[in-house]
Design brief:
Layout (H helix, E strand, L loop, with lengths): L6 H19 L49 H8 L10 E5 L5 H9 L7 E6 L3 H14 L5 E5 L2 H4 L8 E6 L5 H14 E10 L14 H10 L4 E3 L7 E6 L3 H12 L5
Parallel strand pairs: 1-2, 1-4, 2-3, 4-5
Antiparallel strand pairs: 5-7, 6-7
Helix pairs in contact: 3-4, 6-7
Bound molecules: S-adenosylmethionine.
Length: 264
């Protein structure tokens, strides 16, 4: 059938109407309302951390201290950061090498080892002129029952302690490089996996020969134990903190099995 010139516009209009009508009938998927945004979980309100207790000396204080190595050089600011997961937990075991008059010990007792089930072991030479001050300060803290005092050289004393026991160890005793290395290696086996090893005075007296100060020992220790530790980013210029993430013994045994026993 041939359409005349007048019939063409009519046909075009009918076509457009049909097409438009179809589109209206099949409009495609109806836009769904956006799913409601998941309700923001109400933030689990953590109980506020107890305020940090700073032991003080001087008039009116129950303590007697001749020097402050705790509230200086950022130590008392960084300890709550590195020990925050431990603070107030039950059955904690803390170990300190270098206790002097008990100031750092009392800080740990007041702020971390606060539960009655937690204890602190203090190793020091306890020189006669400071021994009584340590005892009097620990007594004044009201926590003497939870403190074990070991008098002697740390390299001997550390050997007497039970492996895999301590949640944190603070090394602030002899500052010579060999002492620091010995204390670190011996403390390693005493520390639980997940425990914190705290070296004080990493950058102490940098003008002394390297064997007379702790830095080289701490650096070498951290290099050698790198597969088994997580170094905590620097929190102050005087301390070096790390977390024990694995047991060295597991990996050395595994290596022997792979390299020797399994080949037999
Ligand atoms: C810097 S003071 C400790 C200060 C203490 N942590 C504080 O903040 O109050 C160092 C202590 O390490 C002790 N010390 C030094 N060499 C030692 C060793 N080889 N074994 C055990 N203790 C040692 C000293 O007797 C001294 O009391």
């Amino acid at each position: 059938m041939r359409l005349s010139a007048q019939q063409w516009p009519i046909l075009a209009t009918v076509g457009a109407v049909l097409l438009f009508g179809c589109q209206r009938k099949h409009p495609g998927p109806t836009p769904q309302p956006r799913p409601a945004e998941p309700q923001q979980q109400a933030a689990q309100a953590e109980p506020p951390a107890p305020p940090i207790v700073h032991n003080t000396a001087g008039t009116g204080s129950k303590y007697r201290f001749s020097i402050d190595w705790v509230n200086t050089q950022g130590r008392a600011q960084s300890w709550p950061v590195v020990l925050k997961d431990l603070m107030g937990k039950k059955n904690l075991r803390g170990l300190e090498v270098g206790s002097f008059e008990g100031r750092s010990a009392i800080w740990f007792l007041d702020n971390v080892l606060t539960d009655e089930s937690s204890t602190l072991t203090c190793i020091d030479l306890f020189a006669p002129e400071y021994d009584g001050i340590f005892d009097a300060n620990i007594k004044a803290s009201g926590r003497a029952r939870r403190v074990t005092k070991i008098k002697g050289y740390s390299d001997r004393a550390l050997r007497t302690l039970k492996p895999n026991t301590y949640d944190f160890i603070y090394l602030d005793g002899c500052h010579k490089a060999h002492c620091t290395l010995e204390d670190a290696v011996m403390s390693w086996d005493l520390l639980k996996v997940g425990g914190v090893l705290m070296f004080d005075d990493w950058l102490w007296n940098m003008d002394l020969p390297i064997t007379e100060r702790p830095k080289i020992a701490i650096d070498v220790f951290a290099e050698i134990y790198a597969p088994f530790i997580k170094v905590v980013p620097l929190l102050n210029s005087h301390s070096f903190f790390l977390v024990k993430t694995g047991d060295t013994r597991d990996s050395s045994t595994e290596l022997w099995y792979k390299n020797f026993y399994n080949k037999k």
